[in-house]
Prior knowledge:
Elements: H1 3-9, E1 15-16, E2 21-22, H2 53-59, H3 91-97, H4 102-109, E3 115-118, H5 122-135, H6 144-151, H7 157-164, E4 167-170, H8 176-187, E5 193-196, E6 210-213, E7 217-219, E8 226-228
Parallel strand pairs: 3-5, 3-6, 4-5
Antiparallel strand pairs: 1-2, 7-8
Amino acid sequence: MSNFDEFLGEVVHQTSINSSFLVHYATSFKQAQPNALVSNMRIVAVSATLPNLGQLASFVESGEAYVFDDSYRPVPLSIFVQACGHIGKNRYLFDKSLDQHVPSILKRFSSGRPAIVFCHSKKETETLASELSKSYTALTKLNDSVLRKFAGQTNTASLQMCLLRGIAYHHAGLDASDRRTVEEAFISGALFCLCATSTLAMGVNLPAFLVVIKGTSAYRGAGNGHQESRWEH
Protein backbone atom coordinates (compact mmCIF):
# COMPACT_ATOMS: atom_id res chain seq x y z
CA MET A 1 0.00 0.00 0.00
CA SER A 2 1.40 3.43 -0.95
CA ASN A 3 1.78 6.34 1.45
CA PHE A 4 -1.04 8.04 -0.45
CA ASP A 5 -3.36 5.07 0.17
CA GLU A 6 -2.38 4.84 3.82
CA PHE A 7 -3.12 8.51 4.34
CA LEU A 8 -6.46 8.69 2.57
CA GLY A 9 -7.65 5.26 3.74
CA GLU A 10 -7.66 6.41 7.35
CA VAL A 11 -9.50 9.68 6.82
CA VAL A 12 -12.70 9.68 8.87
CA HIS A 13 -14.76 12.87 9.18
CA GLN A 14 -11.53 14.81 8.79
CA THR A 15 -10.62 18.11 7.29
CA SER A 16 -7.05 18.24 6.03
CA ILE A 17 -5.80 21.79 5.64
CA ASN A 18 -2.12 21.02 5.11
CA SER A 19 -2.89 18.93 2.02
CA SER A 20 -5.23 21.66 0.75
CA PHE A 21 -8.21 19.44 0.07
CA LEU A 22 -11.41 19.06 2.06
CA VAL A 23 -13.02 15.73 2.72
CA HIS A 24 -16.65 16.36 3.63
CA TYR A 25 -17.38 12.76 4.56
CA ALA A 26 -15.28 9.64 4.16
CA THR A 27 -14.90 6.13 5.47
CA SER A 28 -12.21 3.48 5.42
CA PHE A 29 -12.49 2.41 1.80
CA LYS A 30 -10.07 -0.47 2.12
CA GLN A 31 -12.10 -2.27 4.80
CA ALA A 32 -15.68 -1.29 3.91
CA GLN A 33 -17.92 -3.55 1.86
CA PRO A 34 -19.73 -1.87 -1.07
CA ASN A 35 -23.14 -2.91 0.29
CA ALA A 36 -22.34 -1.31 3.62
CA LEU A 37 -21.89 2.14 2.10
CA VAL A 38 -24.88 4.44 2.26
CA SER A 39 -26.21 4.90 -1.26
CA ASN A 40 -26.53 8.67 -0.97
CA MET A 41 -23.09 9.23 0.57
CA ARG A 42 -21.20 12.02 -1.15
CA ILE A 43 -17.51 12.79 -1.05
CA VAL A 44 -16.39 16.31 -1.89
CA ALA A 45 -12.65 16.79 -2.40
CA VAL A 46 -11.49 20.26 -3.44
CA SER A 47 -7.90 21.33 -3.99
CA ALA A 48 -6.12 24.36 -5.41
CA THR A 49 -2.69 22.75 -5.25
CA LEU A 50 -2.99 18.94 -5.35
CA PRO A 51 -1.15 17.80 -8.51
CA ASN A 52 -2.35 14.16 -8.64
CA LEU A 53 -6.12 14.59 -8.89
CA GLY A 54 -6.40 11.56 -11.16
CA GLN A 55 -4.85 9.36 -8.49
CA LEU A 56 -7.25 10.75 -5.89
CA ALA A 57 -10.25 10.06 -8.14
CA SER A 58 -9.04 6.51 -8.75
CA PHE A 59 -8.62 5.91 -5.02
CA VAL A 60 -12.20 6.90 -4.17
CA GLU A 61 -13.40 5.03 -7.28
CA SER A 62 -15.18 8.08 -8.69
CA GLY A 63 -13.96 7.38 -12.19
CA GLU A 64 -13.40 11.06 -12.92
CA ALA A 65 -11.96 14.27 -11.57
CA TYR A 66 -12.70 17.77 -12.77
CA VAL A 67 -9.81 20.14 -13.39
CA PHE A 68 -10.46 23.85 -13.91
CA ASP A 69 -7.44 25.60 -15.39
CA ASP A 70 -6.85 29.31 -15.82
CA SER A 71 -9.09 29.42 -18.90
CA TYR A 72 -12.05 29.48 -16.47
CA ARG A 73 -10.81 32.62 -14.75
CA PRO A 74 -12.97 35.76 -15.17
CA VAL A 75 -9.72 37.76 -15.37
CA PRO A 76 -7.14 36.33 -17.82
CA LEU A 77 -3.61 35.63 -16.61
CA SER A 78 -0.57 37.09 -18.35
CA ILE A 79 2.65 35.16 -17.80
CA PHE A 80 6.11 36.64 -18.31
CA VAL A 81 9.51 34.98 -17.98
CA GLN A 82 12.53 37.16 -17.35
CA ALA A 83 16.06 35.83 -17.72
CA CYS A 84 18.49 37.18 -15.12
CA GLY A 85 21.89 36.24 -16.48
CA HIS A 86 24.07 33.13 -16.54
CA ILE A 87 24.11 30.86 -13.48
CA GLY A 88 27.81 30.10 -13.68
CA LYS A 89 29.67 27.85 -11.27
CA ASN A 90 28.28 29.27 -8.02
CA ARG A 91 24.54 28.65 -7.83
CA TYR A 92 24.30 30.27 -4.39
CA LEU A 93 25.64 33.61 -5.62
CA PHE A 94 23.34 33.50 -8.63
CA ASP A 95 20.28 32.90 -6.45
CA LYS A 96 21.34 35.70 -4.14
CA SER A 97 21.73 38.07 -7.09
CA LEU A 98 18.07 37.62 -8.07
CA ASP A 99 17.00 40.04 -5.33
CA GLN A 100 18.43 42.98 -7.26
CA HIS A 101 16.05 42.33 -10.16
CA VAL A 102 12.87 42.43 -8.05
CA PRO A 103 12.50 46.26 -7.84
CA SER A 104 12.59 46.68 -11.62
CA ILE A 105 10.08 43.82 -12.06
CA LEU A 106 7.71 45.44 -9.58
CA LYS A 107 7.96 48.78 -11.35
CA ARG A 108 7.45 47.24 -14.76
CA PHE A 109 4.55 44.88 -14.08
CA SER A 110 2.72 45.86 -10.88
CA SER A 111 1.15 49.11 -12.14
CA GLY A 112 1.40 50.32 -8.55
CA ARG A 113 -0.93 47.59 -7.32
CA PRO A 114 -0.34 44.86 -4.69
CA ALA A 115 2.26 42.21 -5.49
CA ILE A 116 3.42 38.96 -3.91
CA VAL A 117 7.00 37.74 -4.37
CA PHE A 118 7.43 34.04 -3.65
CA CYS A 119 10.82 33.05 -2.25
CA HIS A 120 12.25 29.61 -1.46
CA SER A 121 13.17 30.06 2.21
CA LYS A 122 12.15 31.96 5.32
CA LYS A 123 15.44 33.84 5.35
CA GLU A 124 14.99 34.91 1.73
CA THR A 125 11.60 36.46 2.46
CA GLU A 126 12.97 38.50 5.36
CA THR A 127 16.10 39.56 3.49
CA LEU A 128 14.22 40.68 0.38
CA ALA A 129 11.51 42.49 2.37
CA SER A 130 14.17 44.31 4.38
CA GLU A 131 16.05 45.35 1.23
CA LEU A 132 12.89 46.58 -0.47
CA SER A 133 11.82 48.55 2.61
CA LYS A 134 15.12 50.45 2.51
CA SER A 135 15.49 51.08 -1.22
CA TYR A 136 12.15 50.74 -3.01
CA THR A 137 9.57 53.50 -3.20
CA ALA A 138 5.94 52.58 -3.75
CA LEU A 139 4.38 53.79 -6.99
CA THR A 140 1.22 54.82 -5.13
CA LYS A 141 0.75 56.87 -1.96
CA LEU A 142 0.65 54.76 1.20
CA ASN A 143 -1.72 55.29 4.13
CA ASP A 144 0.74 55.94 6.95
CA SER A 145 -1.84 55.81 9.74
CA VAL A 146 -3.09 52.39 8.61
CA LEU A 147 0.46 51.08 8.31
CA ARG A 148 1.27 52.30 11.83
CA LYS A 149 -1.80 50.46 13.10
CA PHE A 150 -0.67 47.16 11.61
CA ALA A 151 2.96 47.71 12.67
CA GLY A 152 1.75 48.23 16.22
CA GLN A 153 0.19 44.76 16.24
CA THR A 154 3.52 42.94 16.13
CA ASN A 155 6.51 42.88 18.46
CA THR A 156 8.86 41.63 15.72
CA ALA A 157 11.13 44.61 15.06
CA SER A 158 12.12 43.67 11.50
CA LEU A 159 8.48 43.11 10.53
CA GLN A 160 7.46 46.42 12.10
CA MET A 161 10.06 48.27 10.03
CA CYS A 162 8.84 46.63 6.82
CA LEU A 163 5.15 47.24 7.57
CA LEU A 164 5.78 50.96 8.06
CA ARG A 165 7.09 51.05 4.47
CA GLY A 166 4.16 49.14 2.99
CA ILE A 167 6.07 45.86 2.74
CA ALA A 168 5.89 42.63 4.74
CA TYR A 169 7.10 39.04 4.80
CA HIS A 170 5.17 35.86 5.55
CA HIS A 171 6.43 32.37 6.37
CA ALA A 172 5.73 29.44 8.69
CA GLY A 173 8.29 30.68 11.23
CA LEU A 174 6.22 33.72 12.15
CA ASP A 175 3.84 33.62 15.08
CA ALA A 176 0.26 32.92 14.06
CA SER A 177 -0.76 36.40 15.22
CA ASP A 178 1.93 38.01 13.05
CA ARG A 179 0.84 35.97 10.02
CA ARG A 180 -2.75 37.11 10.54
CA THR A 181 -1.61 40.72 10.85
CA VAL A 182 0.31 40.48 7.58
CA GLU A 183 -2.60 38.80 5.79
CA GLU A 184 -5.08 41.41 7.05
CA ALA A 185 -2.74 44.23 6.05
CA PHE A 186 -2.43 42.85 2.54
CA ILE A 187 -6.16 42.20 2.16
CA SER A 188 -6.90 45.75 3.29
CA GLY A 189 -4.71 47.14 0.50
CA ALA A 190 -2.26 48.76 2.89
CA LEU A 191 0.72 46.79 1.51
CA PHE A 192 2.09 47.06 -1.99
CA CYS A 193 4.48 44.11 -1.72
CA LEU A 194 4.50 40.88 0.28
CA CYS A 195 7.50 38.52 0.27
CA ALA A 196 6.43 34.99 1.15
CA THR A 197 7.23 31.31 0.98
CA SER A 198 4.84 28.85 -0.68
CA THR A 199 3.18 28.37 2.73
CA LEU A 200 1.11 31.45 1.87
CA ALA A 201 -0.40 29.67 -1.13
CA MET A 202 -1.87 26.92 1.05
CA GLY A 203 -5.44 27.92 1.78
CA VAL A 204 -4.93 31.70 1.77
CA ASN A 205 -6.65 33.76 -0.92
CA LEU A 206 -5.10 37.21 -1.26
CA PRO A 207 -5.92 39.92 -3.84
CA ALA A 208 -2.60 40.22 -5.65
CA PHE A 209 -2.37 41.96 -9.02
CA LEU A 210 1.13 40.62 -9.64
CA VAL A 211 2.80 37.40 -8.48
CA VAL A 212 6.56 37.00 -8.87
CA ILE A 213 8.31 33.64 -8.49
CA LYS A 214 11.90 34.47 -7.62
CA GLY A 215 13.89 31.62 -9.12
CA THR A 216 12.79 28.19 -10.29
CA SER A 217 15.07 26.04 -8.12
CA ALA A 218 15.83 25.77 -4.42
CA TYR A 219 18.66 24.36 -2.33
CA ARG A 220 17.50 21.15 -0.61
CA GLY A 221 20.54 20.35 1.51
CA ALA A 222 23.98 18.91 0.85
CA GLY A 223 22.60 15.53 -0.13
CA ASN A 224 20.20 16.87 -2.75
CA GLY A 225 21.74 20.15 -3.86
CA HIS A 226 19.58 22.46 -5.99
CA GLN A 227 16.34 21.01 -7.26
CA GLU A 228 13.65 22.42 -9.52
CA SER A 229 10.77 23.77 -7.46
CA ARG A 230 7.11 22.93 -7.95
CA TRP A 231 4.87 25.98 -8.17
CA GLU A 232 1.45 24.53 -8.99
CA HIS A 233 -0.11 26.97 -6.50
